[in-house]
Structures are given as structure tokens and as C-alpha cells.
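Sequence, please.
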């Protein structure tokens, strides 16, 4: 069977046909509307889960209300607008119980047409850590609550691990590489990394400020859970059952040296994105060996080639059978705090000089670029040599 391709714009249209008759007209500012026009917002922030959007809200320096110009019928997103680190930011979340690259692409596409001057994006949320505990390099000793930023010399720092082809010699080749983040964000990333050689990051500072502002978030799990709940088990040892690891054999835990403090560390490396949740340590090990990845997630492929952005993930589990939700909220907060600090290093003039993300999307939706993106978003439509890990 030959290749079949799907136009991402047609996906947006199909999902919004039911709303077209009830579209809200653009009548200008109303009660609860932002004091700023849609065209003044230049950074797009995409979250996959409600807890991630809550963490983003907790980091805002100001809240602005609803968009002055309501979204049109081709945009079903709801937005949280505000100011963060001196920039006007648009925050959107994937629909409830929808995850994955295709849903992320639809959300990003709608955002770019409602807020036409967005220059760059950040994909912020939780992910699974791929621990490198057997390495001598302490910078790759990933713990729960740490943050991973997709970064790799000469590439996007993000790979699609479950889409490629098996070569005649038995090796596996990923067919597509994803676009690099915008230069403005990469420059900011370099400066932030350099700064953290002389001082600690601000993640704890910003989380504490969020919890002071919204004390109820402590009850919802956004405070640090405690290092005793950060348990990494041998690759071959499966979970004993239950919501926690209370029944698991403690002799199967991997010993790791305690850290000087509980501040999350920021790691830079390859983020592996795929179409399914990984809860299997041997699969995690294969991805680590094949791609050198340090983090796993599910949405990045839907944004990278449609929305010039960077991927930031708070580590909430180790992609094994012991995976649970205990660290989700704190990991989301850590990622959001890291994103806030990163924006402090972005130069406003450099951001203004970036091409509008909407224009980049329109270019990509022409000719071969459209094919490139759609295969990534809908790998099930490509029936030739689609293979896991």
C-alpha cells in the first residue's frame, strides 16, 4: 500500500465544523478581556495536562484575562493570558484526555491564527526520565523533579523514537529529524546554562513563590514530595502492585548517592518522543542505547515542525512499571519554573526579529514540507516500515 497523507488544516476544520454556526463574533474588548490586543502577544506556551496549565498560571507575573478578539470557529482552544519575565504570553492546554502529537499540532495551529504575532513557543510539562546512573558523568544523574530541556548540538534535541525503518544490516534508522529551536531560544539557553555554572537555578525560588501566592496548590501536590519517594529499581524488577511502591522489594532499589540539597537540576540532552506511554524499563533502556535520550514524552513531534519552539520537561517517573502520579504536579511546577527563568534570558529585540510562527507554519504547509509534517503527526497513515523504538 502506498503512502497516505493528511492535511493538518483539514483536521482543524473537521474538528471545528460543529462550532461554526455558533462562532462568537469579534466585537472588541469585553468584561474580563485582556487590556492588550491579541497582536501584542509574542510567546506561545503549550501544555498537555491541566496540572501543567495550573503550574504555568502559578508562574505568571500578571494575569490579563480573556483574548480581546475571541477565537474564531477554526480555533477551539481556551487561553490563559499574562505577563512572564517581561513578555506577553499565551498559554493553552490540550483538551481533557487528549494527548499526543496530533492534538498538540491542532492546539498550536489554532493559537498561531488567534495570536498572529507569536514568534516562538515553549512546550512545557512532565516527562519520564531515562536515568544514566551507571555513568561517571554526574550531570546525567537524573532524579524525579529534575528538568530536562531538549538540546543537542546540530539538531533539535528531540527525536521520534518509534518511527523509522529497519535497514538490511539489521540496524534501525529514524527517517526524520525535527527542526532546531529558534535561535533566540538557543541563545537564551546558552546564557542560562552559563549562568548556572556560577549560581543555582531559580526553580525552587519560583515554586515557593507560586505556593505562597496559591497555598491551595500545596494540597494538590505541587510541593516537593520528598526524596524518600524517589525510588529507582533494577531494570528487571517489576512493580509489586498497588498505587505506591510500599510493597516493592527494597533490595531491588538502585543505590544512588544523596544530593547536597533538594533543588531540581536542569539537564540538557535528547528528548525522545513517541506515540505511547512507556512503562517498561527494558524498552527505556533500548531507547537510551539507540538514541542517547535522557527523557521520554508524547507531544513534541506535533509542535517542533509546525511551531518554532523548545521542549521543557519536568521528570515525574522513570518510564518503568513503578510509574505513578505522585510526582506529576511537582514535576509540572519545576518545568514551568525553569521556563520562566529561561525567558529572563531572552532578548526582546532578538525575539521581535524572529519570523512570525504563523508564517513559518504557512510555509511548512506547502509542498513537500506538508508531507514531512503529516507523517510525523499521523505515523499510522504511513504503512511502509513503521517500527517501534
Amino acid at each position: 500500500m502506498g503512502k497516505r497523507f493528511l492535511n493538518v488544516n483539514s483536521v482543524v476544520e473537521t474538528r471545528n465544523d460543529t462550532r461554526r454556526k455558533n462562532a462568537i463574533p469579534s466585537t472588541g474588548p469585553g468584561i474580563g478581556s485582556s487590556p492588550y490586543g491579541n497582536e501584542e502577544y509574542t510567546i506561545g506556551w503549550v501544555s498537555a495536562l491541566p496540572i501543567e496549565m495550573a503550574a504555568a498560571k502559578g508562574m505568571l507575573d500578571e494575569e490579563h484575562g480573556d483574548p480581546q478578539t475571541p477565537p474564531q470557529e477554526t480555533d477551539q482552544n481556551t487561553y490563559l493570558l499574562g505577563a512572564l519575565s517581561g513578555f506577553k504570553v499565551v498559554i493553552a492546554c490540550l483538551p481533557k484526555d487528549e494527548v499526543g502529537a496530533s492534538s498538540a499540532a491542532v492546539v498550536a495551529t489554532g493559537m498561531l491564527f488567534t495570536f498572529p504575532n507569536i514568534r516562538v513557543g515553549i512546550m512545557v510539562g512532565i516527562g519520564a526520565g531515562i536515568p544514566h546512573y551507571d555513568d561517571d558523568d554526574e550531570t546525567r544523574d537524573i532524579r524525579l523533579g529534575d528538568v530536562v530541556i531538549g538540546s543537542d548540538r546540530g539538531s533539535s534535541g528531540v527525536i521520534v523514537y518509534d518511527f523509522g525503518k529497519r535497514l538490511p544490516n539489521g540496524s534501525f534508522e529514524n527517517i526524520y529529524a525535527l527542526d532546531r529551536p529558534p535561535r533566540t531560544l538557543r541563545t537564551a539557553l546558552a546564557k542560562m546554562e552559563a549562568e548556572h555554572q556560577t549560581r543555582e537555578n531559580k526553580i525552587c525560588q519560583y515554586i515557593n513563590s507560586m505556593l505562597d501566592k496559591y497555598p491551595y496548590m500545596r494540597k494538590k501536590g505541587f510541593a516537593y514530595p520528598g526524596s524518600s519517594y524517589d525510588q529507582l529499581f533494577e531494570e528487571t524488577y517489576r512493580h509489586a502492585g498497588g498505587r505506591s511502591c510500599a510493597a516493592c522489594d527494597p533490595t531491588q532499589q538502585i543505590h544512588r548517592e544523596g544530593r547536597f540539597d533538594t533543588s531540581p537540576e536542569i539537564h540538557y540532552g535528547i528528548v525522545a518522543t513517541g506515540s505511547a506511554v512507556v512503562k517498561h524499563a527494558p524498552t527505556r533502556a533500548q531507547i537510551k542505547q539507540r538514541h542517547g535520550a535522557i527523557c521520554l514524552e508524547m507531544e513534541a513531534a506535533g509542535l517542533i515542525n509546525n511551531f518554532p519552539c523548545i521542549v521543557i520537561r519536568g521528570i515525574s517517573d522513570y518510564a518503568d512499571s513503578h510509574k505513578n502520579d505522585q510526582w506529576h504536579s511537582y514535576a509540572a511546577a519545576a518545568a514551568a519554573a525553569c521556563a520562566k527563568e529561561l525567558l529572563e534570558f531572552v532578548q526582546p529585540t532578538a525575539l521581535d526579529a524572529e519570523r512570525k510562527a504563523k508564517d513559518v507554519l504557512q510555509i511548512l504547509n506547502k509542498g513537500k514540507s506538508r508531507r514531512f509534517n503529516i507523517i510525523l503527526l499521523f505515523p499510522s497513515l504511513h504503512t511502509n516500515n513503521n517500527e517501534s523504538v
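Confidence is low (pLDDT under 50) at residues 1-31, 367-372, 374-388.
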